[in-house]
Amino acid sequence: MRASLLFLPLFVGSNLALDCQVIDGRLKQIDVSNGQVFGVNSEDSIFTRYGNNWVQLPGALKHVTVGPAGVWGVNKNNLIYKLVGGGWEQVQGQLKQIDAGGNQFVAGVNMQDNIYCLNRDPTVTTLGGAASIPWNLLPGALKYYSCGPYSCWGVNAADQIYVMKGVTPDACMGSKAWQQVPGALSMIEVSTDGRVYGVNSAGNVYRRDGVSIDKPAGTDWIDLTMCVKSKHVSYDLGVLWVISKEDNILACR
Fold it and tell me: In the sheet where 144-147 sits, what is the strand order?
């Protein structure tokens, strides 16, 4: 499969325009990091992108994630899997959403919106199987949780936005004190370089500006006005990958 040559405008405010290229295929969720692209479709089939082609991987997942912590996913039964040596190995625990964007640690939420993270050593060394995994339970409740190099962001059932500061590879729980951030989003993603993007319930895409190691909560939300309504986004290496509400795939620069 090859990318379409159709380009769509994306405007940020009135002075910034990006080209959004429609990519072949259909996905319901996508995650990108360090040049890698993974996604799943409405039938829970798993795909990764090589050049201009999608390659299907074995197995079935409802959510997949790629990052410094490797490639992980969860299936329709909320079972957790890690890609090890080209195959999926089940890891102890249950989550409905998982994120590998932290600095070699993973995090996610379960069916009751409880929040968990796994420090670097067990994240990197686990090969799956029946071995017990020391998941850390964070305070609070979130429906979606994503981590970057120095902070983690999440949204709750009411679409309120929270940031956790002070996260490190060996202390993935961070400060354990949530800071609420103004705004409302239904999903949020932190990139490997710490940039923050999200989508609200109306399908509008936002970028958090002013995010840095010294100011992990950032300063302002920028509305990225698009010609499609979106449901999922992920950013890597200058490209914002967008999944529309119709499962169309866009790569925006």
Answer: 144-147, 151-155, 160-165, 178-184
Q: Whose structure tokens read 């910034």?
A: 16
Q: Where are the alpha helices (DSSP H) in 78-181?
A: 120-125
Long-range pairs for 118-125: beta carbons < 8 A, 24 or more residues apart: 118/172, 119/169, 119/170, 119/171, 119/172, 120/169, 120/170, 120/172, 121/170, 123/69, 123/70, 124/69, 124/70
Q: Which residues of 122-161 are buried (b: 16+ CB within 10 A; e: fewer)?
A: bbeebebeeeeeebeebebebbbbbbbbbbbbbbbeebbb
Strand-pair partners of 33: 36
Sequence-ordered alpha helix ranges (H) in 67-126: 120-125
Q: Decide: residue 86, CB within 10 A, 0-12 exposed, 13-18 middle, 19+ buried.
A: exposed
Ramachandran class of 237: left when φ > 0, alpha when ψ lies in -120 to 50, beta otherwise: left
pLDDT of residue 95: 98
Cα dihedral 12, 14, 16, 19 sign? positive
The token duo for 206 is: 């936002």
Interval 169-215: pLDDT, tens: 999 999 999 999 999 999 999 999 999 999 999 999 999 999 999 99
Q: How far apart are CA 52 and CA 71, in angstroms?
A: 20
C-alpha distances (whole Å) from 237 to each of 63, 75, 127, 204 are: 22, 28, 29, 22
pTM over 0.85: yes
Q: Is 208 helix (H, G, I), strand (E, B) or coil?
A: strand
